[in-house]
Task: structure prediction
Amino acid sequence: MIRWLAPLLLIAAAPAGLEQQIAADLATASPGTRFGLVVATEDGREIVALLPDQRFVPASNTKLFTTAALFDSGLDVDAPDTATGASVRLDPRPGRPPDVVLTGRGDARLSSAADCAVDCLATLADAVAARTGTVGDVIGDDSWFPDERWSPGMSWNNMPTASGTGISALTIDGNEAQVTVTPGKPPMVAGDGYYRFDNRVVNGAVTALDYERAPGGDVVRLTGTVAAARVQKLGVDDPAHFAAWHLRRLLVARGVRVAGTVQARHRPLDAGDNPVRRGSLPAARPPELAALARLSPPPLLDTATMTNKVSQNVYAELLLRRVGRVRGTGSIADGQAVVRAMLSKAGVPRTAYDFADGSGMSNYNRVSPRGTVAFLRWAAAQPWGVRWRATLPVSGEGTLRRRFLTGPLAGRIAAKTGTLNATNALAGYIRAKSGRTLVFAAYANDVPDDAGATRAVDAALERIAAAN
Result:
């Protein structure tokens, strides 16, 4: 056996030759990579156990637990999610035009796109324009959830990116702004107007762009080279302000005069937590008046499916807060309490996990391979298990679109991926050569220089599937 893995790998029901081959597969990853791997039958008999009870950063494997908690919460995932639909109203102000208040309740799908057909901000803009030709301030209200835009343990350097955008009960366009960079003399940078740009891009043989933005700032510095037009997605610090800004733009396009400014209204997590935000208002507000219009978002099943298929971080975080509203206020802690209750029912030891968010962007998250496999076995046996499993990517689809296209697992795997700094993860279900279903969790942490360990993990899983 390969010496570095010899003390760590236990294969309970496999020949010694297979043990050595799996060790060799994993040894192709960069030296220093720490692997955890458990593969078990549906009845819980472990075939492979490598560091089964050590804890690993799961990255987006976290979404497995978040989406399962949604299915287990009792919420109706099939009906249009009217409880979370964004609404708009007019708040009268003495001696001045009424303010427009756009209120969010955790809808992940609100869109400002010109070709929007469902859950469209334009519908709310039309309702305002039909009622009045002049308004005061345009206010985005996300106080349905506490103001927790980033979870503990998320790397600050991700904040300017679409992966690290802020989370809010008032979400629009995935809380992503866009910028298009085009080669020219000089290269051109064009956005939608929400951000200002410090353009330091030069023409080059390849497109290799970098960008940075100070937290809370509205100036994005772009550097690097551009050879062909590139659309870059940017994170947004204050999604409620971003949504109100989009509404103002749509109102103006409809001939409504906006006499005031764009504002955001937040609810601090507690009385002592009221950070100053750009253009924000105090949490206290007048009694809510009747809405002019309210949207009906797509079913939560659609949101959960997209969350897992393409690993959508914002959707996952909103689902965590959504289940947290079932018996709480919609805080991160409320959502985590639901996840913990689910894992307790599943019989997963409390020492096998810790979660700080719902998406996996937090470096504080930890799971053990054995704990994940126990959870996956339990979830598959639930009344909602088959439908939940259908939200996972399969080979050639979503985040597995370039993996398992040929070989023993082509068309025979449904699993959630995970990628973060120095981390690769994959967990789910495979159909082995014999036709039986195997449940697995594979984690690679401490991957040097972001080299990636997916090929090593994939090779090991293919070998196990072919041998069983």
Q: What stands out?
A: The longest strand covers residues 423-431. Residues 1-8, 271-286 have pLDDT under 50 and may be disordered.
